[in-house]
Each structure stands twice: as C-alpha cells, then as structure tokens.
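Appendix C. Worked example: beta-galactosidase
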Amino acid sequence: MQIQLPRIFKILIALAFLVLSNAQTRAQSISLAGQWRFKTDAKDEGLKGKWYNSVLPDRISLPGSMAENLKGDEITLKTKWTGSIYDSSYFFHPRLEKYRKPGNIKIPFWLSPARHYTGAAWYQKDVEIPASWKDKRMVLSLEYPHSETRVWIDDVEIGTAFTFVVAQQFELPANLKAGKHTITLLIDNRIKAINVGQDSHSLTDHTQGNWNGVVGKMTLTAGSPVYFDDIQVYPNLKNKSAKVKIQLKAAANQSATGKITLNASSFNTQSVLQVKPVTVPYQITNGEGSLEINLPMGDKIVTWDEFDPALYRLTATLISKDGKKEVKNVQFGMREFKAVGRSFEINGRPVFLRGTVNNCEFPLTGYPSMDVAAWVRIFKISKAHGLNHMRFHSFCPPEAAFIAADQIGFYLQPEGPSWANHGSSIGDGKPIDQFIYDETNRMAKNYGNYASFCMLAYGNEPRGRQVEYLTKFNDYWKAKDSRRLYTGASVGGSWPVIPNNEFMVRAGARGLDWGRKPESISTYAKQIEQFKVPFVAHEMGQYCAFPNFDEIKKYTGVYRAKNFELFQEDLKDHDMADQAHAFLMASGKLQALCYKNEIEKALRTPNYNGYQLLSLNDYPGQGTALVGVLDAFWDEKGYISAKEFKRFSNSTVPLLKVSKFVFTNDEILNAAVEVAHFGKAPIENAKLSWILKTDNGTLVAKGDFAPKTLPVTNCIAIGELNVPLNTIRVATKLNLEVLINGTEFANDWNIWVYPAKILEVKNEVYYCTSLDDKAKAVLASGGSVFFNAAGKVVKGKEVVQTFLPVFWNTSWFKMRPPHTLGILCDPKQAAFASFPTDDHSDMQWWEIVNKAQVMNLEDFPSGFKPLVQPIDTWFLNRRLAMVFEAKVGKGKLLVSSANLGPGLTGMPAAQQLYYSLQQYMGSDQFNPKFDVPLSTVQDILETPSKLQFETFTKDSPDELKVKSKTN
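Step 2, the predicted output written as structure tokens:
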C-alpha cells in the first residue's frame, strides 16, 4: 500500500534529509581554529627536548601570526630583520639619534610590527578523532604557514613541508585510533638552505613581514581512501569542449576500479548553462591512476574575460566498485589567453594589460588577506581606476585572490616566491634551483584551473646563470601547460633577455623624457623594436608623493607606521609641520600628471602591450616608497579620484598628440587626436568631439570629427584640430577635452597661452644677478631689489631638482636625484596675478623648475614661507625655496634661484612669471612679512647646508655591516 503524503510533508522530509546530509558533510571536517598551546624555541632546544611529548606552557590564537598575538621580541636596533637596507645612515646620523633611543625606536625603512621573531616556534592542540573516521583518509591542512612546518601526531612525526605558495597537507597515519590525540607543529621562518632572497616579497620585512604562524584555514578532514589527487581542466574554445586530466590515488598503494562522472554548469551567468554529464570507468593500480576525459561543453558556451567573467563549476564524482565515494568541485573558465605575434589575445580578441604590481602590502595583519571579499575589494578598486591586470612581485597570493579575480575578471601574473638577489642566485646549483620548479608546480596544481591565472614568471630580477636556467624553465612550462603564458623573470632593463620568453616584462621602455620640453608625440617604439613577442612595461612609474600623515591613525592592527611618525616629527623639527597636507596635495598632483603622461605614451606606442605600475597603491617598504595614488590600504589620498585616473587608464582612451603644452598667442594650436581602444568589441561609427575652454569655463573653440569605427587596437587616427590663439590677450590656462560621444570615454589636457609680446613693467625695482653694492644701497635706502640668484646658490646646491619628482625614494637609492617632489605655491598670492597657476607643478612650470637650483632656508626665521617652495624628500625635510621675498633693512628683496629676468628667449612661461613678479613688486601689495638680515641672504651664496646627506657606509646594500657601532 502506497501512502500519499501532502506536499508540505514531502518538502519537510526533503529538508530533513538535506540537513542530515550537510551535518554528515560537516562531520568529515574539523576546524582547528582557536586556542593552541605555544612556545618559542629561539635556541633550537625543542627537538632535542622532544617538546612534542610535553605540554607547551603558553597560549596563542590561530589562525594568526605570532606578532598578532604579541608573541616575540620587542623592536630594537639589534632586531635581525629579513631584508636589505641600502642606506644605513639612520643608525649613525646625529639628527636621528632620538629615534634610536629605547622606547622611541622609529625605523624609517618599513612599517614596524608589534613584535618580531625569526626562528623556531612550537604550536600544539588536542583533537578528538571521531570513531566514524575509521578506514578513512585523514588529512591535516594548514593554509599559509610561514614557512617550514614539521608535524607530529602524539609522538609520531608525520611530515615536513616548506612552501610559500599553497596550503600544506599532511596525511595522518591510517591506523590512527579514534579518541584524543595531540597535534604539534614546529614552524620555522628563518632563511635556511633554500634561500629565495631576503628581499623576496614572499617573506621580507619590506612588505608583509617575515612572520611566524598559520594564517589561513586549518582543518582535519576525513574522506575516501580512493580519491582525486588532481583535476586540471583545459578549455578548447574552437571545439567547444574541455579536456579534463585527472590524477587518482588510493591509500596504502591499493588497486581499485569504478566510475567517474563529470557534471558542469555555469554559475555566475544570467541563465545557467548545463553541460551534459559524462561517465567513464577508471582503474587504479598500485595506488595510482590517471585518465583524460573529453567534456563537450554544448553548442552554446560562455567565455571568461575582463568584460564577461563567466565561470563554470565542474563536479567530479568518483564511486569505486566497493562503494567508496569522493566528490570534488573545480572552478574554471572557458578562455584562451595567448600571444599572437607581438600582441596578447583573450579568446581571439586583442587585449592591452593595464596593470599594477601587488607587493604584498597588508598593513593591518602583515600577511595577505585570506578571504575572498578582501581581494574582491582590491580588484574592484583596481578596475575603478581602469586596470585589468595585476602582477604579484616575487610572491604568489592565496587561493582567495584567484577566486576573486575570476569573479571580477582580472588577469593575474603570480610569480614564484623569489627575488634571487642580495644573497641568493639561480642557475648555480643551489637548492633554490629545484625549489622554484617545485613551487611553480604547486601553484599550477592548486590554482591552474582559475581563469584569471594567465601568466607566470619565476620571480623578480635574479642573479646567477639566469639565461640558461630561465630558458629551461620556460621550455619546461611551455611543454607542460598551455593555459597561460610564461616569461622567465620580471626584470629591469639591464637584465639579459631570455630568448624564449612568450612575453617580455622589462624596463627600458618606460619613463618620461622630461629633461626636454614635455610633449605628447613621442613613443617607446624604438625601445621595443627588438622584441617579437608582447611587451609589458616592468614597474612603470615609481613617482613619489609626500607622506600622508593622516594615514598614521589607520594602523590599528599588528603594524605601526613608525616611519611616518619619524618623518612627521622631523618635518616639525624643520618648522614645516603646518604644510604637511599641502605638500601631499601638491606633490600628489604632480605624481598624477606623471602617471597620466607615461600611461598615455604607452597607449600611443605601436606594438606596446601593457604596463605594470609600481604601483597603484603605496609600498611601505624599501625605505618607504610612496609611489601610489592610493595609500597602502587601497584608499584614495584626495588628490585624484578613480574616475579621474580612469580617463587616461581605461579600455578606451582618447589621446592628444601635441608638440608642447605652452604656447604664445601668435601661434596656432596644432594637435592630432587618436584613440587606443581595447574594449569588448569595435565601436561602430564612433563620433568624437573636442572642446577648448578657459579655466573658468569660457568657450574658446570646439569641433567634431567625422564618424569612424574604432577597431580593437591602438594608434587609431581620428583627425586634427588647428586653433589660432590670437584671440587670447592675457596669460591664460586652457583645457582641451576630447570625448567619444555617447560613452564614458573622455580625456583632457591643460594648455597655457602667453602674450608673445610682454609689456615692459616700469617701476623702481633694481634687477641684479649679484648682491652688489648698488643692491645693498637700494635696500639700505628703502628700495626694492629683484635678485636673480640662478647658478650662484651654495646653501642648497646639493639638492637636485628636476621637473620629475623623486623616483621610488631617496633612501633606497642613497639620495639618487632628483630630490624634490614638485613645488608648492599659493595661486591667490598677488605675485601670481599675471601668471595663472594652481598650487602645484604643471606643464607651464617645466621651463622654470627643471634643473633650477633651490635654496636651503635652514637659518631663516621660524614660520618663514617662500613664494615658490620646492618640496624636499621626506627623509631630510629641508626648508627649500625657489622664489622668496623678505624685508631686508629698510628695503624689500625678492630672490629667485630659478633663472628669471629680462631677455629669456624661447621661455614664455619664465618671461610671464618674471613679468608677474615685476608687476607685484611695483604694487602696494609687495609687503614682505618677515625681516631677514642681509647676511642671512648672503650666506645662501657662501656657506654649504649644515644638514647634508651622509651614507656613513658605502656598500650597496649596506646590510648594517657596522651596526654594532650604534648606541
């Protein structure tokens, strides 16, 4: 008799079975998160003392690092950091002595952790093994230990693992009985025989920190003794199929037979595409088996890319003949990322990589985020800035990053965990040679199915027999796995070329040639003509901005920004504390201008295929490299928004080709417009227009270009514009905007126009190029003097100023020039009434600022502010001036170390600034606030600066070889 149950009861019964099923699934996994017993082993006594047999006395919370748990040593001058120090002057300079005192240690090179420890540490936890786990395969999984781990179950050592790239897995003994057992971990974060390089971002204190602990998922799982060891999916778009390679294993070298069923379906698409299941037999002999299954994906497939990141989930189910069952899920995308000639293609469409370098900056924890949401945030912010690509400098991110990048549609270049330099090398027969293969194989096995994993390099800038080693490395991977592209290493321009690279990540075709007048016509074509494969710029940019001291309060985690605190206090000691924010904003505007012009130069270069910025966000190590338009937390600093940045760094960017940005009003503004378009598809009959306005919005001219279809490529010529400038009578800042009508794509540039003939200013100002007797007499009688001090400065002569800002930072490169971060001025100051300017460097300042001397005002009165103030490197914080005014005796003096004066042929901006200053000096508004003795002014021409940079040690890197001499 069949009983008919009401529908509601059927649903309840189904739910009950589902709950029971889920409970059984959960029972197969035990979380090990929580309190562990703990003990450090600084003297390596634990093995001899068999600490795995004892009850460890301390407590620690895992997942987590020792530093997060406030375990380890206090920071002192003798802390044994992991990382090179290129400038050890911090340890010797008398000015910095107060930051070397106990209780006030402030390290300028990187962030300061709450505690620091390098060595062995022991972790211990009791677990209860369920009786239901009998005859199952039991695995201890530790995600992201750092870095060598040995494991004991009770008093039996079950394995050792050493990896920076994947979770460490340890099989428990098959005969382990149910009941209480003790797991003991010995984790060692020292560099030992396998030396990946102390500056590798996988372990260096420059970035995430060389922490000790386990920071990801920690589980004990039980499963079938017949199991999937590996599943790799190889999409074939042409055939609309996927080849699935499976590696099977059976415990205790058993043999087994059974069936495997593959199911697949899309899961993040508007409509779910279900793939017809495939079932095949399998056979395992002596514990191992392998098979390849062709999985037809159906007549309709969805592909993965940056615009439509469609994903599939493959469910592989193994059922052995004796009833054992194993299920494994694999995420993958139907995509093909290839190099075709000198171009990248994604699914047959050209792609331009707009990337940033991730340097493993995680300032709250000191280790990479282990959750998907955190990485989704990073990739979304990057996309909001127009980017589609990320390189991971000498480290591989955790699995969460790949999952997030798959979801968002982001192309990744993880690397082996090595910067084999500064104490390491490759190709010299050292253990690292094999370790790189082991690590990259682990990466491919664990993350190879993720669609975002498009590129791979050994790591960063190595030493050693690199050409031979990396050529073999490329050959190995090209033969093994065609799902991604391979380059031996990401390198600067002086590294040798690896001939079989599938793409180049190199310097050499980057930077701005602003030793000459800025323009937007030149390209990098000459620098890349030797390469026959796609070229990606290595570590583009590296333009610094001044520190944002408001950021200090964000460091609420394991790290403190003691470097920022030092720089802030030092700025105060140099009487400029009230200018910190202004320095940030002015230097940031120049930084953004540099990034804009360098990115646009890349976009207009034929056969250029991408750039990797160093970087979109700040790098708090290597001397504190404030190269990002975002801070280390991926937050905006206030001087450029994501929307503004995206105008010149996007899938589609209008570009202007113009020979200069400064004109006189007897000239014609001749410019050409082109477009770089790497969107989802060609834009049919695109209509472009342009508009030229004054700074206050007054229309000067506008125009339209003939409609044109934009193919997916760059260097698409649109047309020219020619605007006579004779209607502009006074010095004027213009803005030229080019738009692709009906789209979000637009870009703009500032243009300056000055009168070709500047009227002579008639006043009683005495102009001189030396403080001669007449100048002194004029001042003594209450007159006004304009002193052009260009080329005569001694106090400040050591400061090298160019229009470009500091590169990376002056500490890491031992004060390599340039030393300044642009200029600061007050646009509302009457001195600039006839010289339109913002408060920061822009193109009109180039001919005035570039290679001009600056003056060090170290002996000037407290509170003294110049009219034009170069912003010094934050490592020295010198109070600098390029133009200042002062009362001297009864008179008034204006001094310029930039070459300003009559007869400046071919320098319209300099002429105009001189004219504006002359007008100002002849007006009632010329009334300097501060009295400065003439002797103080003269001293600028006679006496070197008291504060001079001194390395104290000459090696590179210094490695603190004479650190013991410090107090």
